[in-house]
């Protein structure tokens, strides 16, 4: 008895067409139709490229324009001497650069510089001009005052003598160490928050990260102060005042970073970091003093932690605390805002149990 194997043959047009295509082309598979994902990725790439190019342009403007437009802007300048000589000097001084204040004598002028009522001054006399500067308040503005005095002396064919009223340390007369503080101050606020979030992420560690940010500010400021005192010789005054000023400056920047990261994740952190890099660094006035920047930019720079930190450091280290109230208030507002955001995040975490804080 024989057995016959019967194999069912595929039927229908649904299988015949692919077979015909395969035989004709030699291909074993069909190319999938294009999807919308590719166009979305292209749009994202274009947006990122355009955004980064715009950011570089803005960065150049932020760093370049303050330098191009740098110079005395309504800087308070003290003048003393015979009434006729003072009036003649006032007529020669551009109003948009100098706000002239008159004093009875050179001693009163020097006291006004110590009290930060003026950034420097000129004592006019028949036999010469005495130029009084305070480079610790701003090296560029002091250089401009020296040039101003020399120019007036040349016109009168007399000698100009410069007197440094409030200067940097003897080992760093130009304040190079102070001008180098911009990046340490900025990264002193960014790095601890960023690194601690990587080492100990999540809501359960937020209190520990808050303590770590405070400890970092104190320890890092102690190291920076040691360099300014014993390394560069920029500062030779009160070590404690310098240390506390730098600590508060780093903390006033670090706490907002921590608070934004706790509430909004990396988007909040990156947003503040970009703002500090684009605005805080070029407008801080650390290298020049605030009067060297255009008025609006100078005001904005002093409302940012880096600018306020530099002004607080100058006031506490070189001027015996004169002029420290404004920077202290600005830094206090930033620190309080950052701490408030951290407390809100902690309270929110307590309600959600162990739900992690985005960070």
Written account of the structure:
The protein has 359 residues and is of the alpha/beta class. The chain folds into two domains: 75-164, no CATH class; 176-352, no CATH class. It has helices spanning 13-25, 36-68, 83-92, 106-114, 139-156, 176-179, 182-199, 206-231, 239-264, 266-283, 295-302, 305-318, 325-352; strands spanning 75-80, 98-102, 120-125, 128-133, 159-164. The chain has a five-stranded mixed β-sheet with strand order 2-1-3-4-5, sandwiched between helices. A hairpin with a 2-residue loop joins strand 3 and strand 4. Helix 8 (206-231) packs antiparallel against helix 9 and helix 9 (239-264) packs parallel to helix 13. The chain is elongated, with a radius of gyration of 32 Å. The protein starts with 12 loop residues before the first helix and ends in a 7-residue tail after the last helix.
| N→C terminal distance | 80 Å
Helix content: 55-70%
Low-confidence stretches: 1-27
Order of helices and strands: HHEHEHEEHEHHHHHHHH
Q: What is the radius of gyration computed over CA atoms, rounded to a whole number of angstroms? A: 32 Å
Mean pLDDT: 84
Query: How much β-strand is present in the residues?
Result: 5-15%
Please tell me what the overall shape is: elongated
Topology at a glance:
Layout: H1 13-25, H2 36-68, E1 75-80, H3 83-92, E2 98-102, H4 106-114, E3 120-125, E4 128-133, H5 139-156, E5 159-164, H6 176-179, H7 182-199, H8 206-231, H9 239-264, H10 266-283, H11 295-302, H12 305-318, H13 325-352
């Amino acid at each position: 008895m024989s057995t016959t194997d019967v194999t069912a043959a595929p039927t229908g047009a649904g299988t015949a067409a692919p077979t015909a295509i395969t035989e004709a082309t030699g291909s074993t598979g069909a190319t999938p139709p294009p999807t919308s994902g590719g166009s979305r990725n292209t749009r994202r790439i274009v947006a990122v490229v355009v955004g980064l190019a715009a950011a570089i342009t803005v960065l150049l403007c932020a760093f370049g324009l303050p330098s191009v437009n740098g110079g005395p802007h309504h800087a308070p300048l003290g003048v003393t001497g015979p009434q006729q000589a003072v009036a003649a000097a006032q007529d020669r001084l551009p109003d948009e650069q100098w706000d002239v204040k008159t004093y009875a004598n050179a001693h009163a002028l020097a006291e006004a510089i110590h009290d930060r009522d003026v950034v420097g001054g000129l004592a006019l006399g028949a036999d010469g001009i005495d130029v009084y500067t305070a480079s610790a308040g701003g090296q560029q503005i002091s250089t401009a005052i020296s040039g101003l005095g020399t120019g007036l002396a040349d016109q009168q064919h007399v000698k100009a003598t410069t007197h440094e009223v409030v200067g940097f340390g003897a080992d760093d007369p130009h304040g190079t160490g102070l001008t180098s503080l911009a990046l340490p101050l900025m990264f002193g606020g960014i790095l601890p928050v960023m690194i601690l979030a990587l080492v100990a992420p999540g809501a359960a560690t937020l209190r520990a990260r808050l303590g770590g940010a405070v400890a970092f500010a104190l320890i890092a400021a102690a190291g920076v102060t040691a360099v300014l005192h014993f390394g560069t010789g920029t500062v030779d005054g009160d070590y404690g005042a310098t240390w506390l000023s730098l600590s508060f400056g780093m903390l006033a920047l670090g706490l907002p970073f921590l608070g934004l990261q706790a509430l909004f994740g990396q988007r909040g952190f990156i947003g503040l970091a970009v703002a500090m890099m684009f605005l805080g660094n070029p407008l801080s006035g650390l290298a020049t003093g605030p009067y060297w920047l255009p008025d609006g930019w100078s005001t904005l720079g002093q409302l940012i932690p880096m600018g306020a930190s530099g002004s607080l450091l100058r006031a506490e280290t070189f001027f015996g605390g004169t002029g420290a109230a404004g920077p202290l208030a600005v830094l206090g507002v930033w620190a309080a805002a950052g701490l408030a955001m951290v407390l809100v995040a902690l309270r929110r975490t307590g309600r959600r149990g162990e739900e992690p804080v985005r960070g």
